[in-house]
Amino acid sequence: xxxxxxxxxxxxxxxxxxxxxxxxxxxxxxxxxxxxxxxxxxxxxxxxxxxxxxxxxxxxxxxxxxxxxxxxxxxxxxxxxxxxxxxxxxxxxxxxxxxxxxxxxxxxxxxxxxxxxxxxxxxxxxxxxxxxxxxxxxxxxxxxxxxxxxxxxxxxxxxxxxxxxxxxxxxxxxxxxxxxxxxxxxxxxxxxxxxxxxxxxxxxxxxxxxxxxxxxxxxxxxxxxxxxxxxxxxxxxxxxxxxxxxxxxxxxxxx
Length: 255
Hints:
Elements: E1 2-6, H1 10-21, E2 28-33, H2 36-45, E3 51-55, E4 57-58, E5 61-62, H3 64-69, E6 76-80, H4 86-91, E7 94-99, H5 104-123, H6 127-140, E8 147-152, E9 155-160, E10 166-170, E11 173-177, E12 183-186, H7 190-196, E13 202-204, E14 209-212, E15 216-222, E16 226-231, E17 239-241, H8 243-253
Helix pairs in contact: 5-6
C-alpha cells in the first residue's frame, strides 16, 4: 500500500510513519508534504497514491484548498488537533477523521475502512453502490459537536448539547436557548449548526428553529399539513414545522 502524508509538523509526520510501521501489512510512505502548494504540485506530477493521510491546518492554508484546486481520487484520512473541520472533511469524501494525538488502534480502524473501500472498488462496478459505501463509511465515523462556547459576562462558558433547548435565528443573529430560559449569541449560522449537532437529538423544523427533542412539550396538527409545537422554554411567536419538513419530522420523532 502506498501512502502519502500531508503534514507540516515534523514530529506529527514522524509519529504517523512510526504508527504505520507498526501495522501488520507492508506500507510505503511515498512522500511527506508540508504545504498546500507543494501538495498541489506533487499531485500534478505524480500518480495518485493508494491512500492519503492529511493534516488540515498547513503552513500556507488548509488542506481543503488542495482538493478544491485538483481532482484527487485517493481516499483520505484527515488528521488534526481540532474537531470543527469534521463536517467539511466528510464533504470531500474522506474515510475518517482522526484527532491528534492519534492512537494506534484508531489508525488501525481507519485503515480497515480503507480496505473495505478498496475491496468494493475492485469487486463492485456499480458506481451508485460505491457512492453508497462511501456515504456509509463517512456517517459511521462522523463526530458531532457536543459543546458550544458562549460568552457570559466576561467569561466563556461551555454548554453541552443536552443543556440546549433550541437554536433560534433573528435579524442575522443566532441564539442558543437553555431549558432554564437563558439566551446566548453563538457564532454559527443555523445551516452550520444543522450540520454540526447530533441529528438524533436536534431537528431543523423551519428557517428559524433548530430544536432539541427534549424541548418539545406538545405537538398539534396545523392547517396546510403543517405542525405546531409548544417548546420549553416557551417562545413569543408560533413555532411551526413547515409542510416540507413535517413528514421527516414525524419520522425523526419515531426514531
